[in-house]
Amino acid sequence: MKKGTAAIFNADKQSFEFSSFPKPQPRGQELLVRNSYVTLCSSDLKTYSGERKEANPTILGHEACGHLEALGPDAAVVDEKGQPLHIGDRLTWAVFASPKEDPQSQAGRPQKAEGLFKYGHEKHTSDCSWHGGLADYTLLRPNSIIIKVKDSMPIPVLAMANCAVATMAGAIRLAGPMNGMSVLIAGAGTLGLVGCAMSKVAGASKIVVVEPVEHRRAKASAFGATHTYTTESVAGSFDIVLETSGIPASMERTLELLSIGGRAIWVGAVFPQRKVEIGAEQLIRGLHTIKGLHNYNRLDFIRAVDFLENYHSRFPFNLIVEKEFPLSEAKEAFKYAIIEKPLRVGIFL
């Protein structure tokens, strides 16, 4: 009997146990993917460090991609875009699988549907496993959003599609038309860099990045930023703010820089922190709009993959993953990511 290995994360011990299990067989509408690559998202790091509480034990790694290994007897034979599926196809999938009939799914918010299944976040049990990227296989559940991707896209770039890139695609959707607009992006982490590239392609005339770390400001310029500043030195007035840092002081400061009718999109604050202070008079008199986004919807994910396929060579996406580790060194990968704070660490399988 063929077997596969999974790195089971135990939060109580802050450790990984490498366990071998029989190779899963897809049933019903399930698909089996042989994982190829995982990039470590900030939420992975916060779960590892204990700042974020998830089901325990679990298989981490939701920014993942791989190749189609097998289909269940009732599985769809086309992907979300209608492309035919064949064994060996390179795939990416949304971080969630949501019941399509749920009211939140029907309203375009499948990431908030009741009964949501979330890859890289579920509890590992004998009856429920193979749901994270740090394993040889991922068993894609019914209602998963699956997209076949061209082999020309580098795997480390593709791995980021279903979290950072798709989330920013959702933020760009909420921001509205950008052609000729001035955009302020707070934070030049992976989200912020993707935001630069997408704003550039969307026709923004001015893209300003606020980032305290010098080498990240340099990367922002390569991704399309027209100007970069430290937090204290930025000034001006902006039509759109994309806040990716999640820092309360940054959210407060960038609101002050919105022009009349300006729109602020907040995507970074997904961990516990102090409350944000907002001046109601400024908000009202400035005709400002604040929108928050957690994860993304189906169309955001499709647009994210399309964007990477069309523009991954125009912008230096290959520079986002700064160091790679094999799966057997998962603990070392997490420690490196937390201590050195690279944009992304990659784990190959």
Account of the protein in words:
The chain is α/β, with parallel strands linked by helices and 349 residues long. The chain has two domains: 3-160 and 320-348, Medium-chain alcohol dehydrogenases, catalytic domain (Quinone Oxidoreductase, Chain A, domain 1, Alpha-Beta Complex); 168-292, Rossmann fold, CATH 3.40.50. The protein is built from ten helices and 16 strands. The chain has helices at 42-49, 103-106, 155-158, 161-175, 190-201, 214-222, 248-255, 280-285, 298-311, 330-340; strands at residues 3-10, 15-22, 31-39, 63-71, 90-97, 117-118, 137-140, 144-148, 182-186, 206-210, 227-229, 238-243, 258-266, 289-292, 321-326, 344-348. The strands form three sheets. Strands 3, 4, 5, 6, 7, 8, 15 and 16 form an eight-stranded mixed sheet that branches. A six-stranded parallel sheet has the order 11-10-9-12-13-14, sandwiched between helices. Helix 4 (161-175) crosses helix 5 and helix 4 (161-175) crosses helix 9 (298-311).
Structural class: alpha/beta
CATH superfamily of the largest domain: Medium-chain alcohol dehydrogenases, catalytic domain
What string gives the helices and strands in order?
EEEHEEHEEEHHEHEHEEHEHEHEHE
Number of domains: 2
CATH topology assignment of the largest domain: Quinone Oxidoreductase, Chain A, domain 1
User: What is the percentage of strand-forming residues?
Assistant: 25-35%
Question: N-to-C terminal Cα separation, in Å?
Answer: 20 Å
Helix residue percentage: 25-40%
Estimated radius of gyration: 20 Å
Q: Sketch the major β-sheet.
A: 8 strands, mixed
Provide mean pLDDT, rounded. 96
Total helices: the number is 10
**Total strand segments:** 16
- Low-pLDDT parts are none
What is the level 1 CATH name of the largest domain?
Answer: Alpha Beta
3D shape: globular
Overall CATH architecture of the largest domain: Alpha-Beta Complex
Cofactor: Zn(2+)
InterPro entries: ADH-like_C, ADH-like_N, ADH_Zn_CS, GroES-like_sf, NAD(P)-bd_dom_sf
Enzyme class: oxidoreductase
EC number: 1.1.1.1
